Amino acid sequence: MATHSNFKNALIAFLAPLPCILFYLSFLHHYHNKNNSLWNWCNDHPILLVNILFFLNVNVLFWFIALLQSSLHWMIGLYWMVIPVMQLHFYANHPMAQYNQLRSWAVIILTWIWSIRMIHNYFRRENWQWGVKQDWRYIDMSQQYGKNWWCISFFAIYLSQQVLQMGICLPLYVVHSVDKPWSFLDFIAIFICFSGVIIAFYADTQLHNFFSRNQKLKQLDQPIVPILEKGLWCYSRHPNYLGEQLWWWGLALFAWCLGHNWIFIGAFINSICLGYVTVLVEKKMVREKYRADAYKLYQKNTSVWIPWFKSSSNGKDKKN
What we know:
InterPro entries: UstE-like
Protein name: Steroid 5-alpha reductase C-terminal domain-containing protein
Number of helices: 15
Structural class: mainly alpha
Keywords: Membrane, Transmembrane, Transmembrane helix
Pfam families: DUF1295
Helix content: over 70%
Order of helices and strands: HHHHHHHHHHHHHHH
Low-confidence stretches: 314-320
Shape: globular
Number of strands: 0
Radius of gyration: 22 Å
Strand content: under 5%
Largest sheet: none
Transmembrane segments: 6-27, 47-66, 72-92, 104-123, 152-175, 182-203, 246-279
Oligomer: single chain
């Protein structure tokens, strides 16, 4: 039964984005037809087109599928890691695209690396299964809104995701709409993006290993370790979030190099949202009795995002 459900969810995930993919491929095949007003409009409004496709195919269709699956909103989390790649190739192959080939290849390679790392971490965390769990934040909200959650979820999960993801992915459009020579700042953007991916990879791997060890301790009826404070987690309480932020700020730097000074607003709003998520995560950690005291001490002695050495009070607390 579990295998059947896993296969069904995998099939749904692969088939769900097909409407917008097929429409875009049809557009690319027929856009030269000047007598067709629809293709002319799609040719002249790439950003508006991608937002309409996102609204219809992700917001409406994914939400409807979630309702059919008893409000299991797992696909939006999975496609958060895939949609930037789809947008990247949407902008790069659009008839209006113009860009520096070297910069485009750098952004394409980096975005694919980022996406593959995120997808690998997602399925590793889900024990390589499709749609088994959904984000704990959605579960909390569903309990908060009760019977109205089916309607509120469309705005709280899907529409809000569109605003955020369309905003932070705008650098992908800028990179493929401005043709300027390669500059030294492009090297800095590559370094920031790649550093973010590496930091997030190691942080998530250390977190995964921590949970795996605790699971084995549970099976052996031994006490588990309440918090992770080794490796990158010794210097930052959320190094995985730090790595993710570096990725989006580095991506925005590519567009800033091309003269779009406003482009950082997407990364800035994303940082604010992740800051709010950080508060929710830490409140959740403190609510769990078996780790509450240890985590409060961890909060006191360890930097939130930016890595730094332990507070000097740590040694005194350990002695006490």
